[in-house]
Structures are given as C-alpha cells and as structure tokens.
Amino acid sequence: MSHALDEAIRLASTGANTYTGATHPAYANMVGPYGGATSATLLNAALLHPSRLGDPIALTINFAGPVAEGAFEIEAVPVRTNRSTQHWSLLMRQGGAVCTSGSAVFAQRRETWSAQDAVAPGDMPPPESLPRFGSDLLPPWTRCYDMRFLPGEEPFQFDGDMRSHANTRLWVRDDPPRPLDFAGLAAICDNFFPRIFDRRRRPAPIGTVTLTAYFHADAAQLAAQGARHVLGTARALRYRDGYFDQSAEVWSDAGQLLASTHQMVYFKE
Amino acid sequence: MSHALDEAIRLASTGANTYTGATHPAYANMVGPYGGATSATLLNAALLHPSRLGDPIALTINFAGPVAEGAFEIEAVPVRTNRSTQHWSLLMRQGGAVCTSGSAVFAQRRETWSAQDAVAPGDMPPPESLPRFGSDLLPPWTRCYDMRFLPGEEPFQFDGDMRSHANTRLWVRDDPPRPLDFAGLAAICDNFFPRIFDRRRRPAPIGTVTLTAYFHADAAQLAAQGARHVLGTARALRYRDGYFDQSAEVWSDAGQLLASTHQMVYFKE
C-alpha cells in the first residue's frame, strides 16, 4: 500500500531531464491540485534525478497558470553543479504550456557551528489534547492532513469580525501518517491557509502565485521526526492592491526549525 | 551624468529574449559583483523587455556560481503571460556557463482592500542623527550606500563576543542619492550583511546561494519615497551545517512596508 502523497509525486522518466506524472484525486483543491502537491512533485523530479547532489536547501515554485487534473510533463535541469551545491531549473507543462516554473538549490552539508535564533512557541498544547480540524465543505487535500489548531485560531471562521493580524498556530501531520522527508516537508510548506481569510474572517478569491521554502533540517533530522505532528506558525506582513505575503515556520516537536516558507498570494476585492 | 547603479544594470538587447551587459567596478564585492547589483540587473532584463506586463511583485535569484568581473549575457523569457500576471525565467551566463538563475513574477495590480499587519520599529532615531557607517577595508559596493545603523548594531564588530541573535536596524539609501525604483529596491534587498557576522562577531567565509524579494509597493509608492533613506530590519532564524537563512524588511520613512526579502547563505566553519 503506497501513501497517496507518494502516488501524487510519482514520476516516470522520459529522457535525460524529463518526466511525466499525473495529478492525484486525493490532493485535489478547489481548482486543480493542492499547490503543496505540485511543489513536492517538482522537487521530487530533482530528488529522483541521477545527477542529484546532496539534499534540498531551497525551493521556489511559481504557480504560473492553472494546473488541470490529469497528466503533466516536468523538465528538471541541473543548470549548475559545483563541488557542494547544485542549482536546478524546474518546469511543469500541460499541453505544451508552462503551468508551473521554479528552481531548487541542493547542497552537501558539512558539520559546522550551529545555532537557532528563532524560538518555537512554548505554550502550544500537545496535539492529542486538541480537536482535529475538519470540514466536509473543504477540498479533498485538506483531508490528507491531520490539522489541530490552537483554539480560537481555526481557519474559515467567516463571521466578518476583522482581526488585527493573521497569526495562527497548528499541529499538522500527513493523514494517514507518513514519515517526514523532503517531499513531505515541501508539501506541508503550502499547508497554511490564506492569511487574508484569518485577517478579514470572510472569503475571497485567492491563489498563491509564488512560494519559497528553505529547508533547515537534513534527512536524518526529518527521519527523527518520523510521522509525528510538526508545529506550524504563520503570519502575513502586508496586503495591498491584489497581493499579500505570508510567512510560516515548520518546527519539529522538539522545537527545531525544520523549514521556513514564504508566499505571495493573489486576492480579489 | 548617469548613476552608477543605472550603469551597472544597463543592458543591450541582442535578440528576442537576450541581452548583454557588464559588471561595474563601483559595485565590486570581495569576489565578483555585489549580489544586489546582479539581482537588479536580472530584474532589469524583465523590466526592459517589450513584452513586460505590469510591475514586479516577486523575484528569486539563485547565485549558482561566481560572476567574474566583465561581460555577461542574460536570457529573460516570459514563460507564461496571463491577464494580470506574468512569469519570467531569468539566466545569466558567462562564457556559456550559467552563473546566476532566477525567476520573477510581474502583475498589474488593481485597487483592493489593503492593510499592513507588520509594524516598523517606532524608536529608530532619524537618519541625520546617526553617523554614516563606513570602512575603507570593505569592498567598493558598500560605498554605493549611505548606511546608518542603530548604535550598537553596526556590522563587522569582530570582538568575538557572541550574541544571542542577529537582529539589526539601519537607515540606507543609494549614494549618490537615487530616486527609488524597482531595480534600486531589488539591489537594497541584498544590502543586509551576513547575519552570522552579527551573531558570532567574527568573520567567516560566506556566500548567498539564493535570494527572494517580495515587492509590496507599486511604482507610485516608490516614487513618493524618492531618494530619502529607507529603514531596514533584519534577522536570522537558524544556522546549521553550512547554511543559514536571513530575512529582512525594507520600510518607507513613513512606515510602509516596501519589500520583504529572504536568503539562504552558505558559511564555512
């Protein structure tokens, strides 16, 4: 039995730098696939590539146009390989048109002095003490995650009661559970609902236009996290004339920063 | 008399999506050009392109390999143009090899509900009350900026007195003054010295591997800022096994968030 995420990111090699794959119904969003599944799939093209060097440290995915349900082609080109870093250009096409573009940086890390300035919130109740978030009205991909929000910070509370910020916290893991790896972490980086929903507490048409994720953990740290919930913290800085940013951190349950991630999101009205 | 930044980002069209340019001695760094000049130059290729739609909202630049002083070629391809957004693929080559890659998102903004959650530090003394930072020992590009740090937060204080964070604030503007525009703002986004220097207060070999900038202002807001100092705030989240992130915000002198920017930086030891 393979996990739905592994099915969603599965690729077949069709040439030196090209792959085919297909969207997965479990990760369907309102229109097309969940962006996190798309970014994990593009990252997977580099992860699977025979020329791959090291592990990902950065990923940028530009959601250039709608992705239709069905087959896609991916081009993953190692545009530059150095002694310890490798730079990738990534493109997803459907019917010959680019629907998603991006880039990734891979690196072979060496042990150095290390420190973490950022501090995970210390007052988050354990996941098992919080109710699982869910709604049959939400798109299928939301049911691929076990999300547990801090009470009062649940998404989609559309009472129109405008807030002064969009800071939220949650515990999240794949459902069914799946040991954390780079593809799974990349997918979780798009897990944070549009901040403008939390800020205005009313719906709006939205769409992520670009997402960047930085990976602070290596494969061993991700393996150590296993399939347990990770902690997510998210906020926005500014909403203006059709676009807002949002940033989020993904923390291990021991308070290690696993990933930090940033988006620009289109909104209407 | 043209400004050195305009000379540094100057490009000559050589084809449908190709340009040539050359590094500028005023923006020389330790090795090769200042990364901010490189990212502004790549952005400029899209800004100058006859197919350009709207203004930049996001830019990602991957510093794939060293850029040598001298001539370079740029390829700027509008990989997808929608009704109100346009996605760019950017490459800089020298001698046929990719030295820099990237992407940009442009958009035609429409007036919408707008708000700013982030708050500029309110206790920063005005720029004219602070001494200008400078050192003849630093690379030429640092003298292209008038930087005024909050006392105690000056860079390169290499006394080995480890700090618990790398948060710093400064006022910065081009020197000579230059009215702010997207290229100038993109260049300033790489202005923040490596956080690991502020954190450990000792030198180390470093190099930015990837930079992302989000533009929250439009051309009119940048024009309103003119050539006055902008406020910069910066910090890091985690340093680990050869790489650390840093994030920064660039604020107008009226407290509007003009840009937010993020990097992953290589370090040794």
Q: Main traits of this protein?
A:
269 residues, homodimer, 13-stranded antiparallel sheet, 5 helices, 14 strands, mainly beta, 38% strand
Largest interchain contact: A-B, 64 and 64 residues
Task: Tell me the total number of β-strands of chain A.
Answer: 14
What coarse outline of chain A follows from CA principal-axis ratios?
Answer: globular
Mean pLDDT of chain A: 97
Helix content of chain A: 10-25%
Which band does the percent of strand residues of chain A land in? Answer: 35-45%
Radius of gyration of chain A: 18 Å
The low-confidence parts of chain A are: none
The DSSP helix count of chain A reads 5
Kindly report how far apart the N and C termini of chain A lie. 44 Å
Topology of chain A as a string of helices (H) and strands (E): HEEHEEEEEEEHHEHEEEE
> What profile does the largest beta sheet of chain A have?
13 strands, antiparallel
- Oligomer state equals homodimer
In terms of structural class, how would the helical and strand content of chain A be classed?
Answer: mainly beta
